[in-house]
Amino acid sequence: MFVELHLIQHFAPSNLNRDDTGAPKDCEFGGVRRARISSQCIKRAIRTYFQREQLLSKEHQAIRTKRLLGELADQLTGRGKDPDAALLVARRLIESLGLALAANQPEKTEYLVFLGRQEIANLADLAATAWDTLLALDDVAEDKKQDRKKKARSVVPGEISRAAYQYLDGGRAVDLALFGRMLADLPEHKIDAACQVAHAISTNRVTMEFDYYTAVDDLLPAETTGADMIGTVEFNSACYYRYLNVDIDQLIRNLQGDTELAGAGLKALMQAAVFAVPTGKQNSFAAQNPPSLVFAVVRQRGLWSLANAFVEPARPRDGRDLVQESIRKLDAYWGQMVQMYGDDGIFGGWVATYEPDQLQALQVKPCCRVDTVGTVIKRAVAAAFNGDPTQQEGA
To answer: Which conformational region is residue 365 in: left (phi greater than 0), alpha (psi within -120 to 50 degrees), or beta?
Structure first.
């Protein structure tokens, strides 16, 4: 079973996701330049929203960090262990897993690791249980990085290493189950993502704009004129099409068969995807603009991104503004896809928008319009876990 989420979201002037030069990210699509927000940026906003709005308990969240050493040491110190000894024990346990610490920053791992909070807590429990053994080990002599990894793993007793490996099971962290992970040194402990998130691209052609700003010193002498700081900031304004999908079976597998938690996770994901906004330059632009259309689909097969609805860029026309025209084009493209491929395997689709006059195909079964985003989410989650289209009659 799969759930898809399609959003139309128009942002006021903003710079939500910057490239290496500080300019808003963009791309070419349909032969013209489009605004873009990367999938990584969107996923970060979703994970942050989980935490801020407490959509999931802490034990069902993950941490992406290079500072695993300090986190483990802090948990050991919180149990009354000596801080210096805690750092040593934590380092030996981490290295026993084959995770190398950075040569120039030994307090950090070489790369970001994505671990469930429960995985980290279990590793701290193991370190506390095996405290005396880990503390008594001889230090590994400095050598080539690869040699040090092998030696560090070899000096830790096998039963401790095996126990540590067993704890790397995802810890039933929902964000980890959704977005997956790859550990370069531990490929056998990778987790395949249950959720695919597309880069958001603008439905319209964009051009980059520049804000020339000046700042004046508050203590500037009265007889003096001029600015004490000048510069430029790039920005744009665009109407975005956003898309993600979730493999429900994969999500349940990643959460160790916990169907109830998977349902709660899907609901949290959909809420966060709708309401989370990237934070880039928000203090300068305050582009807090919620989606104009939210459309959820539950299906058995045949995933459809609707991005090609906008191969020809949307633009105001025939009395419709940009948002209205984007919704109209999305609706028309959905109708074309259903006509060409049929709706076999689609259990249902629910759409909420404040522009219902632009809808035609999205109001024909298996789709229907509902009043609120909350109803879209509620019915999509129910259908995804019921697997029974008859449950949706009259929705």
So the answer is: beta
Q: Where are the beta strands (DSSP E) in 271-314?
A: 293-299
- Which residues, 6+ apart, have CB-to-CB distance to 86 below 8 Å? 72, 73, 74, 76, 77
- Is residue 390 helix, strand or coil? helix
Q: Give the three-class secondary structure for 117.
A: helix
What is the widest separation between alpha-carbon atoms in the chain? 78
Written as one letter, the residue type at 348 is G
d(CA 328, CA 324): 6
Going by their DSSP bridges, the two strands 346-353 and 367-369 should be labelled as parallel
pLDDT tens by residue, the chain, 395 residues: 999 999 999 999 999 999 999 999 999 999 999 999 999 999 999 999 999 999 999 999 999 999 999 999 999 999 999 999 999 999 999 988 888 888 888 889 999 999 999 999 999 999 999 999 988 886 655 555 555 566 666 678 888 888 999 999 999 999 999 999 998 888 899 999 999 999 999 999 999 889 888 888 888 887 787 788 888 899 999 999 999 999 999 999 999 999 999 999 999 999 999 999 999 999 999 999 999 999 999 999 999 999 999 999 999 999 999 999 999 999 999 999 999 999 999 999 999 999 999 999 999 999 999 999 999 999 999 999 986 544 444 44
* 383 contacts 349 by C-beta, under 8 angstroms: no
Bridge partner residues of 233 (DSSP): 211
What does the alpha-carbon distance between residue 365 and residue 296 come to, in Å, rounded to a whole number? 13
In three-state form (DSSP H/G/I as H, E/B as E, the rest C), the secondary structure along 338-349 is HHHHCCCCEEEE
Strand partners, 14: 236
Question: For residue 53, which of 371, 268, 357, 338 has the smallest C-alpha distance?
Answer: 268
Classify strands 346-353 and 293-299 as parallel, antiparallel or unpaired: antiparallel
Distance CA(212)–CA(63), nearest Å, equals: 38
CA dihedral 332, 334, 338, 344 (to 10 degrees): -160
CA atoms within 13 Å, Cβ hemisphere of 61 = 18
